[in-house]
């Protein structure tokens, strides 16, 4: 049975699969939350992501390669993920944080930005995930 904890991109099999395939590892508290969100995915998706996490060595292979084109392609995928995460941060800010602020003027902006629908510290959580992705870019050499 599929369970949901509220609207959260952390439940996206696609994003977690990309993180696994490209060795994007997040800080411990975020990683624990993402692992918990896998319980809300179809079981086949969860198993696939676990297998990719255990078997994938794309980043390691690319780092060892002398092929600058391969490294450039790897980084282009990560840059697309970073762009997506930046856009997601903008959408959440515009449609969750700001709209909530308009509806509850008696609360301050800080209190509204603290918790997302998945129960995380919303904006710091999203920024940290984007930063973790940025840290996996590989050196392309000269």
Describe this protein's structure:
The chain has a single domain (9-134), classed as Methane Monooxygenase Hydroxylase, Chain G, domain 1. The protein is built from 7 helices and no strands. The protein has helices at residues 13-21, 28-37, 43-55, 58-64, 68-103, 109-112, 122-134. The longest helix is centred in the middle third of the chain and has 36 residues, at 68-103. The model has no long low-confidence stretch (mean pLDDT 86).
Helix and strand arrangement:
Elements: H1 13-21, H2 28-37, H3 43-55, H4 58-64, H5 68-103, H6 109-112, H7 122-134
Helix/strand order, N-terminal first: HHHHHHH
CATH architecture: Up-down Bundle
What's the pLDDT, averaged over the residues? 86
- Domain tally: 1
Integer-rounded radius of gyration: 17 Å
Number of helices: 7
Shape by Cα distribution: globular
Distance between the termini: 52 Å
Q: Which structural category fits the helices and strands?
A: mainly alpha
Major sheet details: none
According to CATH, what is the class? Mainly Alpha
- Low-pLDDT runs of 5+ residues are none
Q: What is the percent of helical residues? A: 55-70%
Number of strands: 0
List keywords for this structure.
globular; mainly alpha; Indolamine_dOase; Methane Monooxygenase Hydroxylase, Chain G, domain 1; single chain; 7 helices; 142 residues; L-tryptophan 2,3-dioxygenase activity; oxidoreductase; metal ion binding
Describe the structure concisely for a colleague.
With 142 residues, the protein is mainly alpha-helical.
């Amino acid at each position: 049975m599929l369970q949901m904890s509220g609207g959260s991109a952390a439940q996206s099999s696609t994003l977690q699969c990309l993180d696994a395939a490209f060795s994007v590892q997040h800080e411990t508290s975020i990683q624990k939350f993402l692992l918990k969100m896998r319980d809300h995915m179809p079981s086949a998706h969860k198993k696939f992501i676990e297998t990719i996490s255990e078997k994938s060595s794309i980043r390691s292979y690319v780092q060892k390669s002398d092929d600058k084109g391969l490294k450039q392609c790897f980084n282009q995928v990560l840059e697309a993920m970073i762009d997506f995460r930046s856009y997601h941060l903008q959408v959440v800010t515009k449609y969750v944080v700001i709209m909530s602020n308009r509806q509850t003027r008696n609360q301050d902006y800080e209190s509204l930005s603290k918790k997302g629908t998945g129960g995380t510290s919303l904006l710091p959580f999203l920024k940290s995930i984007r930063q973790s992705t940025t840290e996996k870019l590989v050196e392309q050499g000269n």
